[in-house]
Design a protein that fits this description.
The complex is a heterotrimer.
Chain A: H1 2-28, H2 31-36, E1 39-40, E2 44-47, E3 61-65, E4 75-79, E5 91-94, H3 95-100, E6 104-107, E7 110-113, E8 118-122, E9 126-129, E10 136-137, H4 140-168
Parallel strand pairs in A: 3-4
Antiparallel strand pairs in A: 1-10, 2-4, 2-5, 3-7, 6-7, 8-9
Helix pairs in contact in A: 1-4
Chain B: H1 2-6, H2 8-31
Chain C: E1 2-4, E2 9-11, H1 13-30, H2 35-45, H3 49-74, H4 79-106, H5 109-144, H6 158-163, E3 170-173, E4 178-181, H7 182-199, H8 204-215, H9 219-244, H10 249-269, H11 275-301, H12 307-339, H13 348-351
Antiparallel strand pairs in C: 1-2, 3-4
Helix pairs in contact in C: 1-2, 1-3, 1-9, 1-10, 1-12, 2-3, 2-12, 3-9, 3-10, 4-7, 4-9, 5-11, 7-8, 8-9, 11-12
The chains are: A alpha+beta, B mainly alpha, C mainly alpha.
Chain lengths: ~180, ~35, ~350
Amino acid sequence: MKTRGAIKFVVWAALAVALCVYAVYEHESGKLDQMYYHSTKLDGYAVNTNEFFTATKEKPALLKIGPADEIKGLMAVPVKRGDRLPKGANGVIEKKVVEEGKRAKVEGDKLVVTVPWQIKETKGFKYKDTFIHKGVKTDPWSGVWNVAMTIAIGLCLGFMAEGFTDLLGWKIKKIEHFGH
Amino acid sequence: MKWFINSMIGYWIFLLVISLGLSAICYQIFLKDLMR
Amino acid sequence: MFDFTVAGHVVPVFLLVLTGFTVGVVGGFIGVGGGYMVTPALIVFGFPGYMASGTDACHIAGKAVISSIRHRQLGNIDWTIALGMVGGTMLGVELGVRLLVYTKNIGLSGVVLLAASVAVMLGLFIYTQIETQKSHKKLEADRKAGKEIGREVKVSKLPLYFQRIPIMPIIKAKKARLVISMWVIVIVGMFTGILAGFLGVGGGFIRVPAMVYVIGTTSHLAVGTDLVEIVVSGGYGALRQSMEGNVDFMAVFFMIIGAMMGAQFGSLATSFVRGPAIRYILSYSLVLATAGACMRLIYVLTGGTAEWLAFVAVVFTLGEMVFLCLFICTLVWFAVRYQHGKSVPDWVPDMVVQAT
């Protein structure tokens, strides 16, 4: 039993390591982010909310409006519902919000934003995000990838552990539910 | 102390105090700066 | 500190691994996903609320797979019941998520969620605690009278009513040794699925009591079988949440690294204890989660100004996971001591088994 356990352990451990390396690679190469920030859910301006997290009413952030493939710095790219998000965007300021004019408004060729991307209503328990993740749709296959990877890693780790206890020679007996 | 742990409710309180203490330490080390 | 680019926050990795470990121990032992403990913890660590919920749903699926494999080895899974519930669970989770979206659109989500979860958890705690204490007394009396005691002692008469329902098809669950209408199983699955989808949890904390008190399985079987269901409900919930964009995979990854060890320990721990011990820990986790939810509710309702209130709420949220993990670990330690004949607190011999 010990040798079978050893083989089981090594095989599943190798698979687990392979999956983990794959996951880390996906993260490092930015593919995970691209899966997330995929397309728009509404009409408005695509922005990189991390760029204006210090915006206030007195010192608003000025985002240059204009079409672009990648958002670098203070830029706002006009998008329509269903458009592919430009690279670097992580939120969409809705057209309605701009028309309201309270949190953001258009002045000439600049989008003036007076609130930061994240307002902490209460310390740590209630977040009121203003623009981050808003209006962003993820690649539908990202859900499948997430769940499949999680379950696959779980399976590998679980069987690896079973192999490990076999390898150690622990006899795991079945629990007697109805006996003594 | 022994008597305290011997009853279930005493043991419960004992463990709760220890865990709250441990998590207070965690809070001090990690989370204090996150939650300005 | 690790930069979770999707969630948009920098969080210490150690806390995620620790959370994964402690909740892995607890989840593997009482058969829950641990969502109602992890989601608040993630919010405390700084994840936005909806991302905490989605990330948690995803991690639950992975952790439940690890625990299920070990429980299968221990013989704690009745596949008839597990597979019978799957359909109901999936349907229930879908309905629950739609209900959540509906309440979010009317603008009620936060408070309704908290109130609903508090009500459910409190009710379950009261029933489970009372029944388990009665079982404990019966166990103690039997042991003092010298009678032989089994792995499971239950005094609830509820399962008898549900097992008598004559709606066809009636199925035989071999491992659980019961005969019950399939509809009871499906509806239990659906009802727990709705709660799971709505509250964004795995649903274990209601499905385990439901299996023990409604369907009538033993505690150990309920734990193992429920963990299989959590793979389904957690996985499906995670799928839906991912499509809304609520899952940060790297956070899930780190939590599973922690759960890898924790789930093993928690699952193996079940072989050291009797049924009532599992139900006790389950009821404690319910009451602690309720207390934690109440504290957070108070904190939010008072406008979130008092610094000390934040401290208390955070410490409690983390503390409840550590408490349950410590309780389970010390139970195993006492069990081993008892088996070797050393001294243990008075209440231990009823809770643990003489020989594994």
